[in-house]
Specification:
This protein has about 600 residues and is of the alpha+beta class. The protein is about 45% helix and about 15% strand. The protein contains 16 helices and 16 strands. It has helices spanning about 1-25, 200-220, 225-240, 245-270, 285-300, 315-335, 340-350, 355-375, 390-410, 415-440, 445-470, 485-490, 505-515, 520-530, 545-550, 580-595; strands at about 30-35, 40, 45-55, 60-65, 75-80, 85, 95-100, 105-110, 110-120, 125-140, 145-160, 480, 495-500, 530-535, 560-565, 575. It is flat.
Length: about 600
């Protein structure tokens, strides 16, 4: 009965932490988008693109310039092309804020802000062009700080018939060096700016070290880390009564694994410029970590058991290696999480000398290692943990659900096309692990185990090929523009337009995109004939796109419509359901022929 109560108490605590932590993830959703989806500009003209940034109510990002305090200024960079040449980004003044970490003034943006990117058109050719803009910011709230990096596309339509662009809309924006924050600005509390005297750098280092240890300790309660940590403590319980010395070595090596990872992260931060969690901006790292966590979850549910060869002389060494590498994995799992004190501490440390960065990261690692070092050197504390029993199996399965939740969270960081492939990756991985657990466990004959293990490798290799081979695409690929019926109609006299109707929930659409639309012949044909391709995404409600789809005589997807240029614009060539690259090439050729012919009898009227 006492064990059941203990288990329920632990489960309730874990569930509360899980809900609190994942609610923090939801709050960091930042919307970054162009104020106008399509800008209409005359050839050889000057114009500007306004980019809106919508922030959650409780958070903020740093202004540019940000002031003397800790933080990272928001920046935006536009990639120049031969046709569109951007100028220096301009920003709005920020609101004064006194950082609680170092009592220095900084300037921030709350709720909603925007920035301006002036550009010049260096072409006289009538067409639509893309301006790629990358925004980087540090989003902070009361609990943590998260680096944000997002690339968006501004569509610029160049046409002699375009109205004169009103560049006065950018007058309120200034380059950072032109923004002067006056000394009588008020901060968010309504108080005038006050800079505390007597604050020295040594005091800040001590403060950061203390906060680092606390933040590291609290990382153990994050849902990314908790399952690995919990099971490691349970392994301490299992070995504790029989071999206290072995438990002590396991604890030290587990802490060493944690510190090794933090030293690696400190090196990335100090010498490469990586921020905490920035590894999770790379799709490959996300997929690999999600696969490891998912595989660990399956083992918790008993789908398979990883059996390390039990060579008597090496049995202890295997246990110690397992402890060390689980410490490394636990730290890697912690990087997408950010607990209390961590954000402010890291934000301050990343602006300091590499020596201080290493000092802070090591102390965060020590804080994370603290519970295991205490259990290692004070084994009497283990008596407060329920004794081994059947409840451990239930607890292990409960941890498996937490790992599944962590896997889902990591996969949501991927874009739609990569997410679909990653789901197939997880399915193939689970089949491979299932057959290994079913036919390759230690009770089976040696030959059967070898064959089963080889099958596991085949499944994993095939899954890797499925996901990562498509990421190494050639430079030649179709550039999709967001569906914009006005732009299609506006450009109908001179350019063939192809509209691809698709959705993330449509597997046949993804098949067509990966085959017909990825064909080198189709890509070359589109490029050679200057065909504009629009993507009408109806994953969620998209009334304009769905209206055109219905008027084209379809209510299902995949569906493609190729609109000829000129007087036959209202006679689109259509492709229904699954189509091949050969089908698409025939349809495109037909649309080009219609563009050069006199009008056909009208079959349909489009708005």
């Amino acid at each position: 009965m006492n064990i059941n109560k203990s288990f329920l108490s632990i489960s309730s605590l874990v569930l509360f932490i899980l809900l609190q932590s994942f609610s923090g993830y939801a709050s960091t959703a930042i919307a970054i988008y162009p104020a106008q989806e399509v800008l209409y500009v005359k050839p050889q003209a000057k114009a500007c693109a306004i980019i809106n940034i919508q922030l959650p109510q409780k958070g903020y990002i740093y202004a540019n310039p940000k002031g003397d305090g800790t933080g990272k200024a928001t920046t935006a960079f536009a990639k120049a092309t031969q046709q569109i040449v951007p100028g220096k980004t301009r920003y709005l003044p920020g609101t004064l804020y006194i950082s609680p970490l170092d009592n220095k003034p900084v300037y921030i943006y709350k709720n909603k802000t925007s920035l301006c990117i002036p550009f010049e058109v260096h072409t006289a050719i009538k067409s639509s062009y893309s301006l790629s803009i990358t925004i980087e910011a540090l989003y902070c709230d009361d609990i943590s700080c998260t680096p944000i990096r997002k690339t968006i596309t501004q569509i610029i339509h160049v046409d002699t018939k375009a109205p004169e662009f009103d560049t006065t809309s950018c007058d309120m924006y200034k380059e950072p060096k032109e923004i002067i924050h006056t000394s009588n600005e008020k901060n968010e509390s309504g108080n005038f700016k006050v800079i505390e005297a007597g604050s020295t750098q040594s005091y800040n280092i001590i403060q950061a070290i203390i906060f680092g240890i606390i933040a590291g300790f609290l990382l153990n309660l994050m849902p990314c880390v908790l399952p690995v940590i919990s099971l490691k403590i349970l392994s301490f319980i299992s070995y504790g009564n029989n071999n206290p010395r072995q438990v002590r070595i396991m604890g030290i090596l587990f802490a060493a694994g944690i510190l090794t990872s933090f030293l690696a992260l400190a090196s990335l931060a100090a010498f490469v410029g990586y921020n905490w969690g920035e590894l999770f901006q790379h799709h490959t790292f996300i997929i690999v970590m999600a696969a490891i966590i998912f595989a660990l979850a399956l083992s918790f549910f008993g789908v398979y058991t990883f059996n390390i060869p039990q060579i008597p002389k090496l049995h202890s060494a295997n246990i110690y290696i397992d402890s060390y590498f689980k410490g490394i994995v636990a730290t890697l799992l912690a990087t997408p999480c950010s607990g209390p004190f961590l954000g402010a501490t890291l934000a301050w440390s990343l602006t300091q000398h590499p020596v201080i960065i290493f000092m802070v990261f090591i102390n965060i690692g020590l804080g994370m290692s603290l519970p295991y070092l205490l259990l290692t050197f004070y084994p009497s504390l283990i008596r407060f943990i329920p004794k081994p029993g059947d409840w451990m199996i239930t607890f292990e399965q409960f941890m498996g659900f937490l790992l599944i939740a962590t896997t889902i969270y990591l996969l949501t960081l991927l874009d739609a096309s990569t997410l679909t492939k990653s789901m197939w990756f997880m399915l193939l991985l689970s089949i491979g692990l299932w057959q290994w657990g079913r036919f390759g466990n230690i009770t089976k004959p040696l030959l059967q185990r070898i064959i089963s293990f080889c099958m596991l490798i085949v499944f994993i290799v095939f899954a890797i090929f499925l996901v990562f081979s498509s990421q190494k695409t050639s430079q030649a690929e179709i550039t999709y523009k967001p569906f914009d019926w006005e732009a299609i109609v506006h450009n109908n006299t001179s350019q063939v337009a192809m509209v691809i109707f698709t959705a993330d929930w449509c597997p046949n659409c993804k098949f067509v995109e990966a085959t017909a639309l990825a064909s080198s012949e189709v890509i070359e044909f589109v490029r050679k004939n200057n065909i504009t391709v629009y993507k009408a995404d109806i994953t969620t409600k998209n009334t304009p796109a769905e209206s055109i789809l219905q008027q084209l005589g379809s209510r299902s997807i995949p569906f493609a419509a190729i609109f000829p240029a000129g007087e036959n614009f209202s006679q689109p060539v259509i492709l229904r359901d699954i189509y091949t690259a050969k089908d698409l090439l025939k349809a495109l050729q037909k649309a080009l022929e219609l563009s050069q012919q006199s009008p056909l009898p009208e079959l349909m009227t489009l708005p």
